[in-house]
Design brief:
mainly beta; Immunoglobulin-like; 6 domains; seven-stranded mixed beta sheet; five-stranded antiparallel beta sheet; 2 helices; elongated
Amino acid sequence: MPRGALVLLAAAFLALGQAVAFQPAVERLFLGGQWVDVPKYPGDVGLLKLSYYLADQHVDVSISLAGCGLKAEPYKAPSAGPGVFEAVLKVRADGLGRREGCSVVFKSRYRYKSGALTDGVEWVDYLEVEVPNYPSPQAEAVGSLYLGARGRVLLRVWDSYRYMGVVEVSAAGARLYSPGGYYGDVGNLTAYLDVAPLDYSASLVVTVKARDALGREVAVSRQVPLSVQPRPAPRLEASPQWLPAGGCGRVRISVSYPIPLNGTVYVPDGSAPLAGGRGVVYTTVCAAGGYASVPVTVQLDTGAVDKAELQLPVYPISPFPLNVTVQPGVLTAGDVNRVSIYVTAPGPYVGELSVDGAASLTGTPVRFSGNGTTRVDLLLIPTSGVVTIDVAVSAGGYTARSSVALVASQKAPLEVYVEPREVAAGGSHVVKVVVRPRVNMSYLAVTLYPVSGAVFPEATFRLGPQGGAVELPIQIPADVVGNVAVGYRAAYTLASGVSGEYSGTLYLVALQRPQLYIQTSVVPETPTAGEPFYLAVRLFNAGGVEARDVVVNVTGARVVRPPPPLGAIQPQGSKDAVFTLVADGAGPRNITITAVYRDVLGRSYAARSSVALHVNASAPPAATPPQQSGVSEQTWLVLAALIALGAAVVAVGLWRGRVARPR
C-alpha cells in the first residue's frame, strides 16, 4: 500500500475520533414562552412565562424583553438552575390580536460550573409572542317600545373579532317573554326579543359567557337601555251616548287602542277581555244629575293599568231621535285640527254647538239650522286630553241634546332619522338627515351638533313647512368603533302660531375598516433582461374587519403569469400572491404593487408599495468547459483511500490466521 494512502486514512480516523470526543455539552436550551394570564384590554398587563433548561447554576439573574411592542418589567432572581427554570414576567400590551417578535435577554452576573464560580453570561433568544384577543362584546337594542305594552326589539351583540359564546338576556324594569339564552357567533349575533317595558328607564342585561385564549371562562355583562315612549290613551265610546233623566239604562262601552294590546276591561258591574287593542263591555248606568260618570279600568296582560272615566249627559226624553257623529275621532294635541260634526234629526230644526277642552278658531258657540243631516266644520286646538262637543237641537218646541267625547293624542311633532345608519371608522362621510313634520307648521329650523364619535362644526339649517333633507359632512376618527351620536334641536312654529322646540339624538354605527400592508421579495434579486423572475407579494390585514374583493396589480415589468384571485382576507390574516415577470430592458427598474380592496359597506381602498431593482443585460451563451482526460486528483485520493482500507482488512485477516494456526 502506498505510504500517502496510509497517511490519509490515519488522518481521517483521527479527525473522526476527535469530533466525537470533544463535542461540547449543551449549556442551556431556551424552551420558549407561554401566557399564564392574558391582557384583557389594550394597555392591560398579562403574565408571560419563559422557560429555560440550564446545565449550570447562575447567580444574580435578570430576564427582560427587547425589540418589540411589548413592555415588560425586568425579572430578577437570586439564582437559577441547574435544570428547568421558569420565569414569569409582567407584560403590558398596547394592543390585542397582534403578533410581536421579541428578543429575550438572559443575564447572570456569575455562573457556578464544575465546582467553580466564574463570570456570568448574556444570552439573547428570539421569541414570537402572539397577543390574543379578549372577549369585549358590545350590545344594543334596536326599536322603540310603548310603556306597559308588549313589543319586539332587535338585540345586536358584536365584538371586534369572532368567537363562539353563550348570550344570556334578562330584563330590568321590564318583563321578558322571549327565551333568555342564545348560543352563536358573538362577533355578529342578532335576535328578536319579545319584551314589555314597565318603566321609562327599563333596560336589558346582556351577559356574554365565552372563553379566552387560555380556555378560561369569561363573563361580560352589558346594560342595554330600551327606547320607551308613552302608551297611547284608550278611546272610549258609549252607546247610547246619553241617558234619559230619572232612570237607568244599559250602556255598551267600546274600548280601543291605536296599538294591539291584550288584557281585561273592568267596569263597576262587569268585565270583558281586551284583544288586539279592542274590547266591548256592558254596564248599567243610572242618571243622578246632569251627567253620569262611568269609571273604566283596563288591566293589561303585562301588569300595566289604564284608568279612564266616561261621562254620559243626562237629558229629558226627546220626542224625536238625534244622531251626532264626528270625524276624525282622534285629535292631535298641540296642532290645529279640522273637525266635521254631522247632525241628523227629522224635519227642519235649529241647533247650537259648544266645545269644551279645546280652543276653537271658528268661535263658540256655533248656531246652525238644517233639515235631515247638516255638517258643521270647526278648527280646534286641544287644550286637554279629552275634547267634548255638546249639540242641542230644537224642533217643534222640543229640545234634544247629545254629546261626543274625542281623545287628543300626544305624539312627537317631528320625525327625524339619518341615512345611512352604518359608516366606516376613519374617514370622511356625508350622511343625510331627514326631518319630516307630523303636524301643520309654518316655520321649521334644525340645528345639528356633535355629541360623541363624530367631528363636524355645529350648523343650523332652515327648512320649509314640509321639512326636508340635510346633507351633513362628518369625520369619524379611526379609533371610534360602535355608536356615534349626533344631536339635533328643532325650532318650529305651528300653523296656529304656537312656537316650540324639539330635541333628540341620532345614532350611527361606526364599523372598523380593513387595512392591508404589503411585503415583497424578488427572486433572483438581480434579474436578467428577457428572462423571467419572480415577485412574491404578501398581504397582511391589520384592520378589524375582513378585506373583500382583493385585487393585486403590478406595473413596471411585463406580467407573464398572474396569480389566482385572492378573494377576502380575514382580520389579522394574510394571503400570498406570486407574479412571474419579465423585464424588457436592462438598467434600474421600479416595480409598483397596488392592492385594491373593499370593506363590508362596499367602500373601496388601495394599498401601494414599490420595489427598486437592477436588471442585468442579456448574458452571452456560456463557454463549454474543456474536457479533462483521465481521472482528477481528488478521485485518485478517494480510490487510494479505498484501496488502503481494503489492504488493511486483508492484512488483519492474514495475521489472525497465522496466530490461530497450530505450531
